[in-house]
Amino acid sequence: MTVFAGQGDARRSMALLWRTADPPQVRPGPRPALSVDLIVTAGISVADAEGMAALSMRAVGERLGRTAMALYTYVPSKSELVDLMYDHALAELPTDYDLAAGWRAAVTAWAEDVWEFYLRHPWMLQVSPARPVLGPNEYVMLETVLRALRGTGLPAGVLRRVVGALTHFVRGAAQTIAETRRAPAETGMSDEEWWYARSALLQEVAPDFADRFPVMTWMDGEGAYRSEDETVPYLEQEARETFAAGLAVFLDGIETAMSRNGAGRTSGRP
Amino acid sequence: MTVFAGQGDARRSMALLWRTADPPQVRPGPRPALSVDLIVTAGISVADAEGMAALSMRAVGERLGRTAMALYTYVPSKSELVDLMYDHALAELPTDYDLAAGWRAAVTAWAEDVWEFYLRHPWMLQVSPARPVLGPNEYVMLETVLRALRGTGLPAGVLRRVVGALTHFVRGAAQTIAETRRAPAETGMSDEEWWYARSALLQEVAPDFADRFPVMTWMDGEGAYRSEDETVPYLEQEARETFAAGLAVFLDGIETAMSRNGAGRTSGRP
DNA sequence: CAAGTTAGTTTATGTCGTAAGGAGTTGCAA
DNA sequence: TTGCAACTCCTTACGACATAAACTAACTTG
Predict the structure, then answer these.
(1) Which CATH architecture has domain A10-90?
(2) Out of A36, A182, A188, B243, which residue is the most buried by the measure of CB atoms under 10 Å away?
(3) pLDDT above 70 (res A164)
(4) Strand C: which positions are within 7 A of a protein CB?
(5) B244 contacts B139 by C-beta, under 8 angstroms
(6) C-alpha B19: how far from its chain's center?
(7) Which of residues 26 to 85 on A have a Cβ less than 7 angstroms from any strand C atom?
(8) Boundaries of each HTH tetR-type domain copy (chains A, B) (predicted)?
(9) Is the dihedral of CA B2, A54, A117, A120 positive or negative?
């Protein structure tokens, strides 16, 4: 897993991403029954439905009524396919946010949309962000937040880091919940059942828990781990609250940076 | 990849994690030449050196002069081994932070240690945080931050979410850089070379970049993407700055939450 | 129709996790 | 001392995976 972009021919890879292929001339040989787009869409369907682990060339081919090897006519390798899927999926993100209500509302809406998006496509979180794919839609997504965040008036250097940090947070938060969604189906255990069984085992295995972890025990006693809405799965509810609260904290921090910046400092810590 | 904990026998799994196995009685059969600890340590060596993708039962066995199947005497499956590796590695994190200098200094030090830790063990970031492993060292790590963050005086419910969000951020930030470290070796390309080649291709493939992404272009023009310290690899430098700045912003946000909380509100948005 | 190009299949290679069965060791009861 | 049960570790085997290589069949152009 976590494959790096551009292992093969970087030029071909970028051309595929940005769809700058030459027009479909008339060529000898059998008419192509597939296309890059068809394969990428099929790949996304497989990954959405069965998870990244189930994304195999065979599975994608099968979904299109072909063998695995048929795909290699259109796509150089599996890792390129994943890159293409990654960028293609990003296209479904909204790109316009109303800036009239202020940057904070826009950024919050953006973060929530991205979060929901990741929950719809959990496999996205398993594509390594180390060396970015550099596809068009990744840039569109970046440009979208940047437009909203420019309303903060922060200097370019600070802005760059803030965007990065915000992205990390959203990604990290989504990751915690993303696979949780599939877990109940795969393990045949609801979150509650799982948690209940686990905490029973915990007591069995660490009877001195309260002594070893006093602060955690205190938090537990304060009811910090009880959720209010019983209709939403436990772990999902918890993750949702953590996301909302964390985002608010982060945006508060941006406001602090703004006032510090407005007070004459150019950047950096106090 | 990204395997869920406790697929097999949850009780055995927890017993292995918390090392509550019965004492080594005298038993018939050949004396065991291996042990769970030996295997876990070997697994961590393999993963550290070659990455999670190269972590195979065969590879771990080989490092111990055994076959892959020999491991199954000690460890029920690969996914259990990964869980054990995960918790075992966490043991090397510091657990004591000086709280005299205030919660902020302690939390910053903690976050930096965790970040460095993840860079030392990038494979940790590929273990799904969805359904936590629930090993002893994971709890120790949590208790450690909690001890520092309790200095904020925030109520338990808020604290829980803040800790979660902070963890997400550190994880996300580490993830961006973690595999970047291996990338140059694997692709035979330094960060600069890679970036240079890529940006040339970008211009080739999207000559209208400035029109399509004006805010990004503005940021680039402001020199936001130029690093000061030339001795550190480009992408690593960038990630490091993003981490430090993002952490500061988040902690600023916590201070805001504190003052809001101290002013009489119990929780929630303004 | 012949030649050349392309789409897609079949087959094969070398990986992986792990099930099944067997070989060799050891402690203990008879 | 002998036999047996419990144990470690190995060999072999299976079905999955990505993908290389060789092939078949469809199509355009001459």
Answers:
(1) Orthogonal Bundle (1.10)
(2) B243
(3) yes
(4) 3-11, 15-21, 24-28
(5) no
(6) 23
(7) 27-34, 61, 65-67, 69-70, 72-74
(8) 33-93
(9) negative
